[in-house]
Amino acid sequence: MSGGFRVVGPLPDPVGWRGAAVLARDRQGRVLMQLRDDAAGIVAPGKWSLFGGGIEPGETPELAARREFREETGIDITADALHPLVMFASQARIDGVVHVFTLDRRVETGDVTLSEGAGFGFLTRSQVAQFDLIENFRGILLELEDF
């Protein structure tokens, strides 16, 4: 089930919901994050998160990550630019699992056309430690040796 992802913590069994997210950075190594809005039905409103979302029926985690990233940022990424990083249980959905990919190309502010969320930013390690992030994302980001 891990498919090249490092599994962090116990995963639900069975898995009912699956999501995918993309860890992208700029030339300074800062992480691209979305400030979640407070629209009805939004999970973790007002928190910072990686860009991503639910995996649709018939989609692989990689296809979902590419689709969600394109829908939310306007940035098209190729399959060979994504690499599995971690997989963990969703904090928001009791039966959920999130697959996180790293993007091997750099993204800059001018590349992003935000279509979902209240905003976006490129966060430093100290900002990730201090800002109101979804905790699982904070944990994996602070574990990165090159961040």
What gross morphology would you assign?
Answer: globular
CATH H-level name... which superfamily?
Answer: Nucleoside Triphosphate Pyrophosphohydrolase
- Low-pLDDT stretches are none
Query: Could you give the distance between the termini?
Result: 27 Å
Strand elements, count? 8
What's the level 1 CATH class?
Alpha Beta
How many domains in all? 1
**Biggest sheet character:** 5 strands, mixed
Helix count, DSSP H or I runs of 4 or more residues: 3
Instruction: Please tell me the CATH architecture by its name.
Output: Alpha-Beta Complex
Record the strand order, biggest sheet.
Answer: 1-6-7-2-5
Strand pairing plus helix content: what structural class? alpha/beta
Strand content: 25-35%
Mean of residue pLDDT values: 95
* Helical residue percent band: 10-25%
H and E string: EEEEEHEEEHH
Radius of gyration: 14 Å
At CATH level 3, the topology is Nucleoside Triphosphate Pyrophosphohydrolase
